[in-house]
Amino acid sequence: MNIPLQLQRSRQTGFSLVEIMVAMVLSLILLGGVLQIFASTRTSYRVHDSVSQMQETGRFSMEMMTRDIRMADFWGCADGIGKVTNGLDPGGGAGYIDFTLGGLGGTEGAAGAPDSLVLRGGYGTGINVESPFGPQSSANIKVAAGNGFAVGDILLVSDCTAADIFQLTSGQPDGNGTLVHNTGATVTPGNLSPVTCTGANAHCLSKVYDQNAVVFRPQQITYSVGVGASGEPALLRNGQEMIDGVEDLQILYGEDTDGSGAANRYVNATQVTDMEAVVSVRIALVTRSAQINVATAGQNYSVMGTNKASADTRLRQVYTATVGVRNRLP
């Protein structure tokens, strides 16, 4: 049966305006749900990424500081800074380290600012002293060749009765194993003999060291918080950026006041009675996220018992550890 063309056209009416508006409203509702899920997922990812970065920063910083604190105040077989003679020239300029200050030190940050921590002592496995042994304490020290030492290096020689710190001044210490430690050399800070000895360029040690002595490299490590290369706060090691994202460093010193070998109290640097009696160090690091808008302003956290609140929308996390100074523990 053939339907007239005019009747066919009358049946093709299309969508009404109401139907189109209903469809648009439903589409907007669906789109809003998708956008909300996307925004929520994106925020969740940024938060988890920030937490992961802070955890990595905290773990790495704690591992490095813990290792260095444990090795502080190591002077070879000589147990304690009281047996160490620092033969470096205090007026020699750059490079001078006053090792007589002992294995631990630090400063208290004013008005809640970050503290600093100073660690001193020898490190490494050391190299044994070999014959011939000097007839006098100003004689060169002999060790095995291929030791990696170079002119200008500062070294520590130690046995169980004494230790001396000096600087290599000439020769080829790595090639022939002869450790020359004269005064009047061009290296800085140079040597200044702490004891009387003969010879214009002689540098006397506190004793003649024999096969019972070992040579180490001494070091001073200073941990502090400053501005890193990215402009973000960073943990510095001897003034060099170690890792960014560290906003605060607080230090308490565990002082053994009764000689029991254990800390009786934990105080800041200005309250320590005797730094040589400190047997452990308590550290607190505050890490913060590089990204903003991952937390609400006013995030509350506590650092060494002091309550604080963030002033921005970055995440913050506090890491604490109490580390024993192994060379001072019984």
Describe this structure in words.
β5 (154-158) and β6 (163-167) form a beta hairpin. The model has no long low-confidence stretch (mean pLDDT 90). This protein has one domain (57-328). It has 3 helices and 16 strands. The strands form 4 sheets. Strands 1, 2, 3, 5, 6, 8, 9 and 10 form an 8-stranded mixed sheet that branches. By secondary structure, the chain is α+β, with helices and mostly antiparallel strands.
Which percent bin holds the helix content?
10-25%
User: How far is the first residue's CA from the last residue's CA?
Assistant: 112 Å
The secondary-structure element order is HHEEEEEEHEEEEEEEEEE
Q: β content, as a range?
A: 25-35%
Class from secondary-structure proportions: alpha+beta
Q: Compute the number of strand runs.
A: 16
What is the number of helices?
A: 3
User: Roughly how many Å is the radius of gyration?
Assistant: 33 Å
Question: What's the number of structural domains?
Answer: 1
Main sheet properties: 8 strands, mixed
Low-pLDDT sequence parts: none
Shape: elongated
Mean pLDDT comes to: 90
